[in-house]
Amino acid sequence: MSTDGSTTSNRRATDDIFTKVTPGRASEMILDQIRSLIRDGHLKPGDRLPSERELGDRFGVSRVTVREALRGLEANAMVTIKVGAHGGAFVTAPTSSRVSEGIVDLLSMSGLTDIEITEARQVFELGIIPLVCERATEADIEELLQICDRGDAAAGQGSSSMELSAQFHTRVAEASHNAALAMLAEAFYGPTLVSLRHVQEGHPEIGVRSSREHRQFVMAVKKGDVEKATAVMRTHLGRTARHVKG
């Protein structure tokens, strides 16, 4: 809850950071300006924005236009709008799920090729192996082996699941116990799955070999053998790269 003193201090801090906008796309320009101020650190999580009336005066627009911009910011989870005597628009801290969703949307709609996805995976997945070998817990190893077991069962029935393969690689990143890496891996799940399905269409045998290499990788991680784990994953991803390049 803001006190009168903190409100006055916050008002002084935001006096000179807003600039007037031109008619036409005013609400979008206000949204972009406030978003940039948040990203640049001029506005921080917990900061209370000036009132709609004050913002309208500073931007040179009506309160209706300001309200439209604030609703857009709220929809993008950048501000929270509270009502009441101590209400207003407050800058919110980004959540990991919201950031992850944004990355997923970006990757899914950007038209990346299978080659680009696979090259990115090679850089990313090989790079995290030292952390995975250092930090993987018994629970991580057990869950990865369970995915391997399901992959073996599918292969034994003459089929293979690219969903399980993509899930395996995402779970490996989680074993790094680094939230940023896990978030990136989760964002790559969809594009990775699509590229693996494309590979499977031309190379149906890939599932059986992948399942075997997954297990070899897990056993190397269990022993903390970075060199062995890296060698297995490099071979594994290298084959996928050759397939997508034709």
From TrEMBL:
Domain HTH gntR-type: 24-94
One family name in Pfam for this protein: GntR
Any one GO MF annotation of this record: DNA-binding transcription factor activity
Key words of the record: DNA-binding, Transcription, Transcription regulation
SMART domains noted in UniProt: FCD, HTH_GNTR
Protein name: Transcriptional regulator, GntR family protein
